[in-house]
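**Reference record**
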Amino acid sequence: MAETDSDASKSDILYEFIILSEWIEDYDSVVSKNTLNNVQETSLYFSPWKLLKKSTGNTLRFLETEYSWHLAVSKDGKVVAILKDVSLEIKTAKDGYSSAVGKASIPSDQNPKLRKLKWSADNSFLALARDNGTIHVFNLLGCNLATIKGPDDSNGIYQPVVGLDFLQPKFKSSQWSNELLVVYHKGDVKSILLSSLDGQESYENIEFSLKPYYPQGIFSVAYDSNYLLIVSGPPTKNESGITVWRILNDYPFLKCTVEMERFSASSRSFLKFFSFCSNYQNPKTVIKMSISPSNNFLACIHLCGEISLWRMPGILLQRKWSLHEQPQYNKSNIKSRENSNNEDLFYPFDIGWWSDNALVIVRRNGALSVCSITTLQNLLGDSPEFLAESPQISCIKGDRSGVMALECKTSFNCKRREDSYFDEVNKDTETSILQESIQAALYSITDIEKFEPKRKTPKVIQRIYRMIALKKTTPEELYARKIDNEEYEEALLLAQKYNLDCDLVYQKRWRNSNVSLESIHSFLEKINKIQWVVNECVERVPDALEDVKELLKFGLEKSNIKVSFESLDSEKRQIVLYRIKLLKFLDKLSIYEKIIGSPKKYDKNEYDNFRKQPAIAAIVNYARKGNWEAVSTMFTYEGNETLPHRLPILSNFPETLKPLQYRCLLPEIVEREVISWETKILRKLDWCEKNSYESLICEDNDVTVEEVLYKNQEHLKYFQGSTPSADVVEEWYKRRTYEIEKNTGLVENALNFVILARERGVKSMNKLYSDLLTLESLVYLVGDENTTLKKLEILNHFEQCKLLLAKTAASSFITDLKNLIVPLAKRCKTGNCHTPQALLKTILLYFSEESLEFSLKFLNHLKEGYMNPFDLTFNETALIVLDCIYSCPKSDQLENCFSILECLPQRSENKEESDLHDKIDDVEIYLEVCEILERYEISKSVKFIYENKNVEEIGKELLSSMADFTKRVSLDFTELLVDFQVIQSKIFPCISDDYCRELCTLTQMTCECEEIIMSAEDILECRKGEKNKIIPFEKSIQLVLEAAQKHFEKATSFDDHYIELAQTCLRLIVEPHFLISEELDLIEAVQLLGDFEVNMLPVQVRKNENRIKLIDACLKAKPNNYKSYQKLLQLAQALRIYGDNRVKREGEVLIMIAEFALKVSDYEFCSEICNHLVNRNYSSAWMVIRLLAQNEEFRNRSKKLHFLAFAILHCPPEKIEELIESRLEFQEKYFSNVIMDTLS
């Protein structure tokens, strides 16, 4: 049990010593003082810090040996602040002080050892005092809330802070949440109000000075919750130097309640001078003070090493112990590098309170003790806890009572003891520093080597800071901590002393050790809890196979309780369950041994997974890994669980695994019966596996087969069962074959699987076997990666052949036929799709669509005497090849066709071959025609000629193409006519001989040579009744017109050469004919249009349906074209405008000319044309005549009257009145002018 505060002073206390955090300073470089330059050395001596040190004497040597880092712990221990050289970290107890919740940057100080750090009572503020007296206030996150500058004297020397604490609130205020009390070394006292509100500045509430009472300065300050401020300084001869001050709300703010004897003014002045000059110091000076948690006692450390205890609030001395009276004061720190004979190391360095009855004392050598306030005996035991030298401590009050400390371990790069940095510091006395400074100044002035300071080597050190906690604990907590720290012997002693459970030690040692026969007997056997022991035998998996056996045997031995099922309680029931598991694990171990074969192959993790899994899960995993030996072993020894799912398990083998490896696992069918698997038994049943205990065994099986095997493979349920039928097995073989091929594309594996199935009595695999053989050739010989078994099986044999020969060439065709097609053709004998002969014919016909070279190769192969693998005679093969010629659509295969004919036999008297030779003769005829067409650059295949035989339309197209070629290259037209007649007689008898002659003559006349055209008169009947002419007169007219029109339509202008050729054709007909005349007139019209500069193609003139617009085009083509009205009338006649109606043609043309002349204001010419219209009495001209007559610019009065009379005569009735009025008006003007002219 933990000790209470009341008896803490009477007996030892239980505690824990914990390292909370650690920081390493790897690069800190320490430069010896003598390495400074002269100016620096001199200024260092006269620095404010040196002057302060000189004024206070040797009492500040404790600060000089403290760390530059500082630790501040809140009163409840919930937050901690660590002040580093230039940074601040804030940590909390929530995470064990492991991470910083707040950080801040701090300005560097000349002497960071004079800093102070303090938390407020509510942990909301953290106050930091720097060496110059400046105060910084931070919040919990490290934000700087306020900065208060410290006081300085008239010499500019800063005052360090000796007291820093937060006061208890005297009154509630919404503006000010905390009050900070600051006491400076020279005696100045400040009270600063702080606010937690954003933007609210601090406020100095109190200013007071203790200089009259402590002229030499203040060394230590303590504050209790009763608003009492306890101050210590240099004492008088018989006094302690301690005063007590009550803090007031109003002026003078501080009131002394316990006062030491005052000095006179003269004595104070003398002491000041004596202190400065001779380093005056009193050994009774109090340098550290601490108030107990209940505010009843004050503990002090004196400069001489004495510890005193005072009763509060009257400051009455209760006890005191000089250094040599203090128990265990001279215990040496084995971790320290300092000389243990140096008595200064045993001086108390800091003091605090563990409780109201126990003090915490820290000495310079790092010894930390918790001592009784009555005897000062160490309550931690025979020896104090040792930290690094001069650690900082902070005591925690309340439930978290204890001590937190900050220590620093220093290591140097030098090997010699005299190189220690601290030795150098100790040598730097004020006298030596003054001497060295004067010497350096002289050297800087004179530059004489005699005064040159000695140089010292820089020292590089490494500092390791640790934050450590020493806290109270209970025996149970300490016992658990000892076990966690593996301090087993101490833990056992503690367990024996406090009657604790020793099993915890052996349990920890068992779990931390490897399982072996030794560890079983040394640790596990000593544990009294049987259930725990058996559970460990179940849970632990040793690293060696023999250790597994020993552990299982030990567990079975411990669990062999042999009780009836009815007497089972919860503990025994659990032990029985463990025994069942151990037996199962022992069986699993036996099976695992058989699987691995050798103990060297034992794998701890593999075995652990194996034994935890149900048999069905393990065998499925082995199957998926392709371990067929393991599957076979489990079928044999775990048959009850695995064999009902034999086929689904086999379906989990990787499809990439060769079926030959697991052939022994495949089911076999004999006379439609499936052969069962032979199983074996590992051992006899144990007592816990019989009778009533069966219910416990069932409870242990918590994994279902459904989850393991069928969750994602529902289709495998069809094949489960202990004794599947032959039909089910055959169906499984088929599906498995498809799965292997589909999932891997390894046709070889699928084929081998089918072969094994056929060996094992599966009779329904022939079709699948044949398809796989084909697919094997397709994949491995052809290189087809896209065709699958599913795609292949829906194809007929010919479609399969197409795939097999997809990459064949003529050079490899015969080889591919032998290697790829012949095996398939042999398998076709058992099918119904194709016979081998039909298959060959289909293949040759298929390739003939692209080239006849394949058929030629095959025919040559047989002609050379090779055996026909398709059981065909040469004549039968020849017939097939002839069919191939008819099926080839390519026109570039004529050479191959002739080569094929050369391979075929000549006609003989054998009547059986007559059909063959008749077909050969037909092919020769088609080839002859193809050759004729080829001469005319007309490429046609035999297939085309054969399919279009006697098709008149196709025949005429071919003859026309021949005629065009002849005309283009100027060949002999007699030869053309002969070729026409050959093609017509042999292929197109539907075309007449006359058509051939007429086409030849037309071709002759459409040539671009006039001599050739004129030679056609020998064939044409140029006048009726002309004898010895081949083509009659009417047909001659038709051909001449057609030829002339073709020339005419080719012309691009009126003077084109084709116009002359057209006229040449028309002049072939000597006897007049109206059709010839019309064509000649059209040619004349084109030439007239050219004279009028109308740019039109002759073919456009022919196709113009409204030819009157051509007259309009002539009028617009040139400005003066309208004046050539006779030529325009000639053009109209040549164009046959309005046919044979000459009156209308001329009248309309003249009207157009008159309108155009009127439009261009040529009134005289318009009057001339209108006069022609009046003379011809062309009534439709009344409008243009009326417009001319009514035009004011037309001055011929007599013609105006004449034209108006004509307009009145021929206008519509509704216009008569208007025109008469116009004529009368004009007539009146006309006669008036005549009378006037006469009179004049």
In short: The two ends are 168 Å apart (CA to CA). The chain has 47 helices and 31 strands. The CA atoms of residues 178 and 494 lie 47 Å apart.
